[in-house]
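User: Show me a protein chain along with its predicted structure.
Assistant: Here is one chain, sequence first, then structure tokens.
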Amino acid sequence: MTRLMTEMLKGTLEGIVLASLAGRPAYGYEITAGLREQGFADIAEGTVYALLVRIEKRGLVDVEKVPSEKGPPRKVYSLNAQGREYLEEFWGAWSFLTERLEQLREGGE
């Protein structure tokens, strides 16, 4: 992954993770694996876990501890109402930016 791609991903990873949770609850490794399957191959688990802690503290997700067959209970994250509102705001900002960037690429104003 290029440095530019890494920097752009940092700014959008929160929205990407929330979008992945919009479909169904998941635990950290599951989220990371799903993102890798979607082409985000260079995302480190530690990055996702740190982001999950931040969005949990901000109240964007609900967390449930679920027993695991291997080791301690897993924290399963699900998007709550506040997280859904934030995700809607993210998609609005994303749409605005992509429209403007496309205009710029095409040489328009």
